[in-house]
Amino acid sequence: MAVALSALVEEADRYLNAARIQDYCPNGLQVEGRPQVQRIVSGVTASQALLDAAAEVEADVVLVHHGYFWKSEDPCVVGMKRRRLKTLLVHDMSLLAYHLPLDVHAEVGNNVQLARQLDLIVEGPLEPENPRNVALVGSLAEPMAARDFARRVQNVLLREPLLIEGDTPIQRVAWCTGGAQGYIDQAIAAGVDLYLTGEASEQTFHSARENGVSFIAAGHHATERYGVQALGDYLARRFALEHLFIDCPNPI
């Protein structure tokens, strides 16, 4: 069964309420392909490897979290950007990308989906008054040692995390997928035992260590694999389409 590309995009935009969030890139349809859709390939980033894999399975739409046309990006279509766009255009594939709207969504969002993977109980946003703060705060059902929780993260994400171990067992947790190490100070102010994100900066170590809080950097890519899969599954169910998630491993 096929569906019009316009209907698919309209539903994704509506479901994620994409227009309400001011972002660093355009959300929604970034590159237009064939007008009818039967097969969606999803992935974290619209890299050349993902595009080649999508073309190999004859995808109609490539659905990603990290697309193109970032505010700080060179607009010239040369080099890597030219090769990527050429692949999409030659194979008549659409590129559908959602950044912050996918992070914050209450059902398929990256942070909610990661919580489900790690058995974290969601309480709500870390900063409820800030619409662009996508971090969440919650808890574990039972306290556990930081090293044991880090082992859980490794077993689920299949990637050894960076752990800075704090002074107390872990129960109250804040987290934000991707490159959100800058939220550690808000997490500390909220009284958490551990803050988890994808990446770390030099100053993250000092913030965690000097405040006695545990910190885990579990990988930008690794923590953001689940939202786009959930969105792809939702769209596939909604329109009776084929959906295939393709993971292109990234150690960062």
Automatic annotation (TrEMBL):
Molecular function, one GO term: metal ion binding
An example Gene Ontology CC term for this record: cytoplasm
Top-level taxonomic group: Bacteria
Keywords, alphabetical: Metal-binding
InterPro entries (alphabetical): DUF34/NIF3 (IPR002678), DUF34/NIF3_sf (IPR036069)
Residues spanning the signal sequence: none
Sequence positions that bind a divalent metal cation: 65-66, 103, 220, 224
Family: Belongs to the GTP cyclohydrolase I type 2/NIF3 family.
Annotated protein name in UniProt: GTP cyclohydrolase 1 type 2 homolog
The organism of origin for this protein: Pseudomonas kuykendallii
Taxonomic lineage: Bacteria, Pseudomonadati, Pseudomonadota, Gammaproteobacteria, Pseudomonadales
